[in-house]
Design a protein that fits this description.
This protein has 14 helices and 20 strands. By secondary structure, the protein is of the alpha/beta class. It is globular, with a radius of gyration of 23 Å.
Length: about 425
């Protein structure tokens, strides 16, 4: 009898040991976004921790945003593997016909509403498969439906100290194994703000990149201390295109559209304006009117959109006025704008078609036990990151726009 007990004890001990060993080797992914980090900032500003990170991992020449190259659509494309026209978050602001409602990224009740978010975000996929996840800010992570958001998350508040965000990520990694998230997203709003306010080549933008660099150094040093098999993927939602504040840089939508005409619903995003109509004949007459004025912009009927946009969605305008790179759409009075404009100053914008200008492209750098080192790959669209992360974490890949084969060359099986 005592021999049998010893055997049972030994087998139990062995099983526990194998379970602990498996838990220790199960991969982790931290997906980090530095908003507006242009593809050439590392080359231009020489941030040491980014360069060190790249030297130990792999990189893409650039990360190509989905159209339009805006913050909300692209952050959500990264975590769903879908183009904006397919996941439904088609712009930072848009009109939804079904609800007769204008979505905007500053409308907290709508930002939290699952109705606006299609697809299966990575954290929802993890939850469906018994894996915990966490998010220190990411578009879509605040959904009011508990089944569709991360196990741990924070409502967006950009006043939260960036260093404390890194500390929280490390604290999540220090949780007991059964509580520890294997997928973590982490978001910083710079250098986007500085790029907007001063332009992508400004000293203020360089300082913001170096600030991001310091945070990256802190994150990597503290991840190393955990001794966990953590893969870190650095991305940005878009880059930044420099504009000079001159009268000719802008055109004023109020000068070409009758804003008193209540049959036209308008949502302006600066690089593109959505126009919504209930009457087809009205749409066609406005199209003819705008077509005659094309110079700094192109006007498109929805059925004419370039196929590469993948932008056939009811939330997209029936017509779109799309600014040519180097120009920008403003609302309101030209005279009022010129009274307050700092003519000759530089600033930055994004939203243009990433096939029309590479300046709106972002970054992709990856490092970790499941990432091969020393590879530099061609620019690719951000929808292809999703399959790489699911492969690292051992999650099933749902039907998405992103293709597993695009980044397969980066994957290392450990």
């Amino acid at each position: 009898m005592w021999i049998m007990k010893r055997i049972i004890w030994f087998l139990s001990f062995l099983l526990v040991g194998l379970t602990v060993s498996a838990q220790q080797t199960k991969p982790y992914v931290i997906l980090v976004s530095f908003d507006g980090f242009r593809f050439d900032y590392v080359k231009n500003f020489n941030p040491p921790n980014f360069k060190n990170f790249i030297s130990k991992g792999s990189q893409a020449e650039a990360l190509v945003p989905s159209f339009p190259s805006k913050t909300f659509p692209n952050h959500y494309s990264i975590v769903t593997g879908l183009n904006p026209g397919h996941h439904g978050l088609v712009d930072n602001s848009f009109y939804d016909r079904t609800r007769n409602e204008f979505y905007g990224m500053r409308k907290k009740n709508l930002v939290e509403d699952p109705y606006y978010y299609g697809g299966i975000p990575l954290w929802e996929l993890a939850k469906r498969n018994g894996m915990k996840s966490a998010s220190f800010f990411w578009v879509g992570s605040e959904m009011s439906d508990e089944s569709r958001r991360p196990d741990y998350y924070f409502p967006f508040d950009d006043s939260v100290n960036p260093e404390s965000r890194v500390d929280q990520v490390i604290n999540w990694l220090k949780l007991p194994e059964n509580e520890r998230p294997h997928l973590i997203t982490l978001y910083f709003s710079f250098p986007d703000h500085e790029g907007h306010n001063f332009g992508p080549n400004a000293e203020q933008t360089r300082q913001a990149v170096l600030r991001a660099d310091t945070l990256l150094g802190k994150l990597m040093n503290e991840v190393k201390v955990t001794r966990l098999p953590v893969n870190v993927i650095l991305v940005s939602d878009h880059g930044m295109y420099e504009l000079t504040t001159l009268e000719d840089t802008y055109f004023f939508i109020d000068e070409i559209i009758d804003r008193n005409d209540t049959s036209i619903k308008l949502v302006n995003g600066g690089t593109q304006t959505h126009l919504y109509f209930d009457d087809q004949r009205k749409r066609d007459s406005v199209y003819v009117h705008l077509k005659k004025q094309e110079r700094k912009f192109k006007v498109w009927k929805k059925e004419e959109f370039p196929p590469r946009w993948n932008y056939q969605n009811d939330r997209v305008g029936d017509l779109m006025v799309v600014a040519e790179p180097g120009y920008y759409i403003r609302e309101g009075s030209r005279e009022r704008f010129l009274k307050s404009a700092n003519l000759g100053s530089k600033h930055g914008v994004h939203g243009y078609d990433p096939e029309a200008t590479s300046d709106v492209r972002g970054i992709f750098y990856a490092q970790g036990p499941n990432i091969k080192s020393g590879l530099a790959i061609a620019p690719f669209q951000n929808i292809h990151i999703y399959p790489l992360i699911t492969k690292i974490l051992g999650l099933p890949l749902p039907t998405i726009d992103g293709k597993e084969e695009v980044l397969n060359k980066l994957y290392r099986n450990k």
